[in-house]
Amino acid sequence: ALAIVCQDFFVASLEVICEELSLSHDVAGATFMAIGSSASELFTSILAVFYTRNDVGVGTIVGSAVFNLLVILGLSSLLAGQHLQLDWRVFVRDSSAYTISILLLFFVLRNKRVDWFETPILLLFYGLYLLLMKFNPILLMLLDRCVAQPQTRPIIPPRSPNPIRA
Description:
Order of helices and strands: HHHHHH
Largest sheet: none
Helix content: over 70%
Low-confidence stretches: none
């Protein structure tokens, strides 16, 4: 029943929102679809923190990220029966953000707890990530420029095809 509700209403609603905002598929997936699919983890973490007072929430979030990266990507390719074509620029963008988020998580959990003043830092980083997504076309263009091959000019000018001989 939950799958039907999600497929018929939730995913359809997110698709309409992303179309209205003129978001590309990769930005829609990295923002609205990611938020929607992670909502259950958010509530699991909240319940774990306030009711059971343990760190099952952190384990759920990190475990889910590993599952999403390895199993979902691998199974998607396998079940599609073809190679997945990934845009290297999107991969660099998302991998960089993921690496920074892992480093932030490491920094925050170094003392085995999340202090109140660390929460705004995490939320600010996610806000910056969303802002980056807003300017995604510019970012992709800049990444293209960074790796563009410079045009080379020959050092010695080419010979003319019919040199004049005396």
